[in-house]
Task: structure prediction
Amino acid sequence: MAQVFISYSRKDLAFVQHLVDDLKKANLDVWYDLSGLEGGSRWRTEIQNAIKNSQHVIVVLSPDSVESEWVEREFLFASNLKRKIVPLMYKQCELPMNYLNLNFIDVQGKKYYQNFGEILEALSIKPVSGSLPPAHKIVFSKTGWMAAGIVAFVALAVAMVFALPLLTGKSEPTPVATITENLETFTPIPASEAPILTSTPTQVLTVTPTSLSTELTDAKGVEMVLVPAGGFTMGNNNGDNNEKPVHTVDLAAYYIDKFTLTNVFYKACVDAGVCLPPKGTDSTTHQSYYGNPTFDNFPVIYVNWFMAKAYCEWRGARLPTEAEWEKAARGTSAGTYPWGEYPDKAFANFDGVDTTPVDAYEKGKSFYGVYDMAGNVWQWVGSLYQHYPYKPNDGREDPGASGARTLRSGSWFSGNYYIRSTNRNKDDPTSAKAVYGFRCARNANP
Result:
């Protein structure tokens, strides 16, 4: 008997119970919670065991479920376990950028009966050993989480056509499908098939002589590195639409954090009574993460844009602009990754299961010596998310302006396409997720 886990918003329970009844009539073994725990170890045990023992995870899509943190957590955990995801569009909803291009089954209204056979077809594989835990009569509080898992699924379907030109000599990738008005989808080259870099980074940079120190440690003990003044190439004409057009941006000299901000440095601001604690103290695979000395040198997560901004200001710094972030990542050589042209899991934390120490990937340093500019956690920058070309005086650097803010670098969950130095993402500045972190910058000449 095939085994199925259903992830859904509590507000969609009536539909889910109807779905469960029909699936059981089709001889499927179904697990779903009947509302209620407030998280914690009991939640983890029940949910994780159920997903581990399931072959498929049905995700019921609705305006409530796409805002539910637990739905997203369940999706992420199932994705890490390589379970087959079967999305059902129960109620029309506007999906965030990373949810687009999702191949869902439409079950709205009468379409449920019309497409029920398609659901059964998607679930028709041999069962795994072991049985599902019983659906306990408990209440699970569900409040919103799905984007990071979709990133990996989209990425696995998107990078091949982008990467093939690098191997064949063709100058333009062939777009396969459009996932947003500003993004094109490409087929990936698996990391195992990509050329392995064994040499030093290929970037060549002429640095203007300067009397500024190349590295410093600020008053809060955080190491920063210098990015010299000058122009660099921003954007990528072979990338997504939101990375075009390629253009040159001139920047004054600035310092940027050598490492993504860690738990221990963020905690110092919280202990000082200035910063708010992270929105979550766990990580995807660790119940105790923030505040646990074992993870002091890991990136702080569950921080939104406002929290990141407040921390940087406490240090007498600021969030880097989007242009500053990109120059620090790729130098002036316009490389695809901070280290060169091909993805390599020895150089960055991507396609993984959780965060890693911020200094774990020395091979992946950028030309300026900045760590983790690809993967590990998405990094907030100061800029509003706007179209290119980048213009610092067009309002995008207004810290008081409303609108989506930009994230860069990809995360541990991202595929190699999303950790490119020119890749751009966006989210509401109030959003705090297990894949969101940041680093700070400051002017070199106050």
Q: What stands out?
A: The CA atoms of residues 55 and 128 lie 7 Å apart. Confidence is low (pLDDT under 50) at residues 35-41, 126-209. The longest helix spans residues 13-25.
